[in-house]
Specification:
Helix content of chain A: 40-55%
Oligomer: heterodimer
Number of strands of chain B: 10
Largest sheet of chain A: 6 strands, mixed, barrel
Number of strands of chain A: 11
Number of domains of chain A: 2
Shape of chain A: elongated
Number of helices of chain A: 16
CATH superfamily of one domain in chain B: P-loop containing nucleotide triphosphate hydrolases
Helix content of chain B: 25-40%
Distance between the termini of chain B: 31 Å
Radius of gyration of chain A: 34 Å
Structural class of chain A: alpha+beta
Strand content of chain A: 15-25%
C-alpha cells in the first residue's frame, strides 16, 4: 500500500472507535504534557539562573592585573609567564589590545578611590567607583529607584546603605529593613560635592630638573591638585553591583568616562612614579567582559599570553551547568514516566483493536493485503495517535506552563520580587516532544502491528 | 500438467493436530482444473471443501502434496508472494460476504486496488465500473448494513473481480441467500465464466445449484476425493 493510503485508512480506523482512541490519545497527550512541563521547567530555571549569573557580571568577567603590581591569584600563574619586572604595564594600550581579542565585549579600567563626599555640608567618607554603561543590565539595578546615569553625565548612583548614611538614619538591631523607595524620595535629583585628588601632568622647570634623579622623575611625572565636583544623585539601588569585592566594594558609582576624566590619583601612580619615568597613567585592574561565560577560559588564556594575571569564576559556572544537566535528566525521566504509562495504553488499545478487527484483518488478507500492509496500517494508527497526542500534549504542557508562570508571578509580586519566566518552552522542545511522542507510539505499536500481521487469515475469517 | 491447467492438486493433504487427535481435513486429493472450467466442489459439512478452497487461495498451506495455481507452486511462495497471489491471480467470495462494515461499497471495492497500489485518481472509476457491472451503480455510497444479502454478495463479487483475476474461488456464495437471489448471483458468476473465460471453483452443498451451473462436479468425503463427474446439463 502507498503511504497516503495507509495514512488515510489509519485515520479512518481511528475515527471508527472514536471514544477509545480519543482516550488513548488523551493519555499520550498527558504523558507528553508532563514531559514538556518537566523539561520546560528545567530549561526555564536554567535560563533564569543563567541570566541571573550573566547579569551579575561574575561569570562573564575576567579581572586582569599586571604581574608588576600583584602576585597571581594562583601559584601556577606566578611560576609561569614573564618575571614581574619584565612583564608588560597595564595601561591604555594594553586595555585596547584586550578589547581587540576575540569574544571580548569590552575591557574597562577599574577606577576606584576613597574620597570625601559632602551632602548638605556634612562630610561622608566612602569608596567611589566608575561603572561602564554596559553595567546598566546588571541585576543589581533591577529594583533601582531613579535612573541609570548617562555615559559621562555628572551623576551618581548610591547604595541604599549610603543613602541611609546621607539621611542620617542609623539602623538599629532588630529594625525593619527600610524601603529603598522611601530612602530614594528625598535624595533623587539632589547634589553631592565630591572632593578628590587629581593627578595632573606637572610643568617641568629647569630648577626642578636639577634635583636628584628619583625626585625629579616623581616631580616631572605629575602634581597633585585638590578638586571638587558636584554630582546629582540619579539612582538609589538596594543590591550591590560590587558585591564581588566584599568590604572593599564602592557605595557610590559614577559613569566610567566621568571617573576616568577626573584623573584621580590611583595607588598604582605612586609605584609608577618611583619606577617609571614616562609618567604614563596605568591601571591597577582592568575588567574584561566576555561575550559568553563559556568563552571565559579562552579569553583568559589569550590575556595570560599577553603577560598579565587573570581571575574569573569559571569553575563555578561549570558546576552550575553540571547541576542543571543532572536536573534536566531527572526531570526528563520523571516526565517520561507518564509517557511510558501512556505507551502501555497504546499497546492496550491496539491489541483490543486487533481482537475487534480480527475478521476485518482476515478479510483484508483474503483479498490480497500483505503482512506489510497490515503491519503498516497498525503502525500508522499508533503513529497517528502519537502525533495527535504529541500536538495536544505540547499545547497542554504549554498551557500548564503559562498558568504556572502566572501563578508564580502573582506569588513573586506579592513578596515584592520582580516577575520571572520560570517556565520556558523552546522550539526544540516542542519539536522534540512531538517526535518523541511519535517514536514512543510507534515503538508501542511494534508488538500489536506484528501480531496483526501474523494473524492466520483462515482463523481470522472464522472469527465472529 | 498442460499449459491450459489453471489449478493442479497433487496428493494434497491438510492435517491438523488437535490434542492427541490428527484431523485430516484434506487427505491426498489430486485434481487438475483446466483454464476456463466451472467446477463445483460438493460434499457434506466437514468434508474438506472449504479447506481445499483455502489451499487453492493460498490462505492456508498444505501439509502434504503440491498445490500449483497458474503454473506456480504455492509452497514455493513467501508470505508476500502468497498475498500477491490472492491479490492478482485469484478472487474470493464468501458465504458471509465479508465486506468491511465501516466502509461503503465503493471503499470496499477499492480496497484491493489500494493493496495493488493503483493510483488514487484511477481507483474510483474502476470501482464504480465494477459495481455497475453487478448492478450496484446506484448504491456505491451505501454501507453493507444498508443492503440486502444479494446486494452484499454482488458487491463482494465486484470486489473479487476488481483486480481482474483469472480464477474466482467462491465459498458457498448462495449459502446465505434465498433461492431467487441465489439464482441472480449464480447467473452473474456463470456470466463471468462464459464471457470472461474465468476459471471458477465453487464450494457448495446444494447439488441442484451445482448441477445447474457447473461444468464439472467434484465430490469430497472425509477429506478425500469421492467422485469427479462432468456435468453435461450445465447452463440449462
Amino acid at each position: 500500500m502507498k503511504f497516503y493510503d495507509v495514512t488515510e485508512l489509519a485515520f479512518r480506523n481511528l475515527r471508527e472507535s472514536l471514544l477509545r482512541n480519543s482516550l488513548t490519545t488523551v493519555g499520550i497527550s498527558v504523558g507528553v504534557a508532563s514531559l514538556v512541563a518537566m523539561l520546560s521547567l528545567g530549561v526555564g530555571l536554567q535560563q533564569l539562573a543563567g541570566k541571573k549569573l550573566e547579569k551579575s557580571g561574575l561569570f562573564d568577567t575576567v579581572i586582569v592585573t599586571s604581574r608588576r603590581d600583584l602576585h597571581g591569584y594562583e601559584r601556577e600563574q606566578e611560576r609561569n609567564g614573564p618575571a614581574p619586572a619584565d612583564s608588560p604595564v597595564l595601561d591604555e594600550a594594553a586595555r585596547a589590545k584586550m578589547e581587540q581579542l576575540p569574544d571580548v565585549k569590552e575591557a574597562y579600567p577599574d577606577i576606584r578611590f576613597v574620597t570625601e563626599l559632602r551632602y548638605e555640608d556634612k562630610p561622608h567618607l566612602t569608596t567611589v567607583a566608575g561603572l561602564p554603561e554596559s553595567a546598566k543590565t546588571n541585576d543589581a539595578f533591577d529594583g533601582m529607584q531613579g535612573n541609570f546615569f548617562a555615559n559621562d553625565a555628572a551623576q551618581a548612583i548610591i547604595l541604599k546603605s549610603f543613602a541611609e548614611e546621607l539621611l542620617g538614619r542609623v539602623p538599629k538591631h532588630g529594625d525593619a529593613e527600610p524601603n529603598v523607595a522611601e530612602l530614594a524620595k528625598p535624595l533623587l535629583g539632589k547634589t553631592m560635592v565630591l572632593r578628590y585628588a587629581q593627578r595632573a601632568p606637572a610643568q617641568a622647570s629647569p630648577s626642578q630638573s636639577s634635583a636628584t634623579d628619583e625626585i625629579s622623575a616623581m616631580e616631572a611625572a605629575y602634581s597633585v591638585i585638590s578638586k571638587e565636583l558636584t554630582v546629582t544623585i540619579s539612582g538609589v539601588t538596594e543590591l550591590n553591583p560590587d558585591a564581588m569585592r566584599g568590604q572593599s566594594g564602592a557605595r557610590v558609582y559614577l559613569p566610567l568616562k566621568l571617573a576616568e576624566s577626573l584623573h584621580v590619583i590611583q595607588p598604582s601612580d605612586l609605584r609608577n612614579a618611583a619606577s617609571d619615568k614616562t609618567g604614563t597613567a596605568t591601571y591597577s585592574t582592568v575588567s574584561v567582559r566576555v561575550a559568553s561565560a563559556a568563552r571565559v577560559p579562552q579569553v583568559e588564556a589569550a590575556i595570560k599570553k599577553l603577560g598579565f594575571n587573570t581571575f574569573s569564576i569559571t569553575d563555578a559556572t561549570k558546576s552550575v551547568r553540571q547541576f542543571f544537566a543532572v536536573l534536566d535528566l531527572f526531570l526528563g525521566i520523571f516526565g517520561s514516566l507518564a509517557l511510558a504509562v501512556a505507551s502501555i495504553g497504546i499497546v492496550n488499545t491496539l491489541v483490543m483493536a486487533i481482537l475487534e478487527r480480527r475478521r476485518e484483518i482476515g478479510i483484508m488478507k483474503a483479498i490480497g493485503a500483505s503482512d506489510r500492509d497490515v503491519k503498516g496500517l497498525f503502525f500508522a494508527e499508533a503513529g497517528a495517535m502519537g502525533l495527535l497526542g504529541g500536538l495536544l500534549g505540547v499545547a497542554l504542557g504549554w498551557t500548564i506552563g503559562q498558568l504556572i508562570n502566572l501563578g508564580t508571578n502573582v506569588y513573586l509580586r506579592r513578596h515584592d520580587y520582580p516577575p520571572e519566566k520560570v517556565w520556558l518552552v523552546p522550539w526544540w522542545l516542542v519539536g522534540g516532544a512531538i517526535v518523541f511522542s511519535i517514536m514512543v507510539s510507534l515503538l508501542s505499536g511494534l508488538y500489536p502491528a506484528s501480531r496483526a500481521a501474523r494473524l492466520d487469515p483462515v482463523q481470522a475469517l472464522r472469527y465472529e | 500438467m498442460s499449459a491450459q491447467t489453471a489449478i493442479c492438486l497433487e496428493a494434497v493433504a491438510r492435517h491438523y493436530q488437535m490434542g492427541d487427535a490428527l484431523i485430516r481435513a484434506v487427505d491426498g486429493v489430486s485434481l487438475e482444473i483446466p483454464t476456463g472450467q466451472f467446477v463445483a466442489l460438493l460434499g457434506s459439512s466437514g468434508s474438506g471443501k472449504s479447506s481445499l478452497l483455502n489451499l487453492m487461495a493460498g490462505l492456508d498451506h498444505a501439509t502434504g502434496g503440491k498445490v500449483t495455481v497458474e503454473n506456480q507452486d504455492l509452497a514455493a511462495l513467501s508470505r508476500e508472494g502468497l498475498a500477491k497471489h490472492r491479490l492478482k491471480t485469484v478472487g474470493m467470495v464468501f458465504q458471509s460476504f465479508n465486506l468491511i462494515p465501516s466502509m461503503n461499497l465503493l471503499e470496499n471495492v477499492e480496497l484491493p486496488l489500494r493493496f495493488a497500489e493503483v493510483d488514487r485518481d484511477k481507483r474510483e472509476g474502476m470501482a464504480r465500473l465494477s459495481l455497475e457491472r453487478v448492478g450496484l451503480g446506484a448504491r456505491v455510497k451505501h454501507r453493507p448494513s444498508e443492503l440486502s444479502g444479494g446486494e452484499q454478495q454482488r458487491a463482494s463479487l465486484a470486489r473479487a473481480l476488481i483486480n481482474k483475476p483469472r480464477i474466482l474461488l467462491a465459498d458457498e456464495p448462495t449459502g446465505n441467500l434465498d433461492s431467487r437471489t441465489g439464482t441472480e448471483i449464480m447467473t452473474l458468476i456463470s456470466e463471468f465464466n462464459s464471457s470472461l473465460g474465468m476459471t471458477i471453483v465453487m464450494v457448495t452443498h446444494e447439488r441442484a445449484i451445482a448441477e445447474r451451473y457447473a461444468q464439472r462436479l467434484v465430490f469430497l468425503a472425509d477429506g478425500k476425493l469421492a467422485g469427479d463427474t462432468t456435468n453435461s446439463g450445465a447452463g440449462n
